[in-house]
């Protein structure tokens, strides 16, 4: 047996069929030409790879920038809501008529809020300033009225006893009232 491949005879007339018959390259130059043609065809197929790679990296950069901006905006809105809630709660405790007045009068709150933390000492100091500058915003201190309770039926005022007849008359009046209904 020889090392040369056996020639394959196509069935029928090769000119009649649309299939091309493979002929192995006869020299190294022909093989190099076939390989270079295949490589060139692959390079043409992926010629825009670098452009696409640059576009994707540009999209990645713009996506990360958009995420960063959205996060900053969300944290800013959250910090504003947190500040308003803290001022509203502190204003209620401080006795403001309307806590939204305290928010409106507060002014710049950049020194009070840092990130998502609220400095409660600075907040209460500023609310105290607002209350002293505009006392009409705060409820006036009212002394609690003294409530005097009436004695119950079982209690007797200072040694006086309720007469038993008075209780009997009350019971009779109740029975009469309930029978008329």
Automatic annotation (TrEMBL):
Top-level taxon in the UniProt lineage: Bacteria
Residues covered by region (Disordered): 1-28
Protein name in UniProt: Scaffolding protein
Species of provenance: Glutamicibacter mishrai
């Amino acid at each position: 047996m020889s090392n040369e491949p056996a020639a394959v005879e196509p069935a029928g007339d090769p000119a009649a069929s649309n299939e091309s018959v493979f002929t192995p390259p006869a020299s190294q130059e022909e093989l190099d030409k076939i390989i270079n043609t295949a490589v060139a065809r692959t390079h043409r197929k992926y010629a825009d790879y670098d452009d696409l790679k640059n576009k994707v990296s540009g999209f990645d950069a713009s996506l990360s920038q958009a995420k960063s901006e959205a996060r900053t905006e969300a944290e800013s809105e959250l910090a504003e809501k947190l500040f308003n809630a803290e001022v509203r709660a502190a204003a209620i405790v401080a006795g403001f008529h309307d806590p939204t007045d305290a928010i409106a009068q507060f002014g710049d709150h950049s020194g009070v809020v840092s990130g998502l933390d609220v400095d409660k000492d600075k907040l209460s100091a500023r609310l105290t300033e607002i209350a002293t500058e505009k006392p009409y915003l705060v409820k006036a201190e009212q002394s609690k009225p003294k409530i005097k309770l009436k004695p119950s039926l079982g209690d007797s005022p200072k040694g006086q006893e309720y007469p038993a007849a008075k209780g009997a008359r009350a019971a009779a009046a109740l029975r009469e009232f309930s029978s008329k209904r």
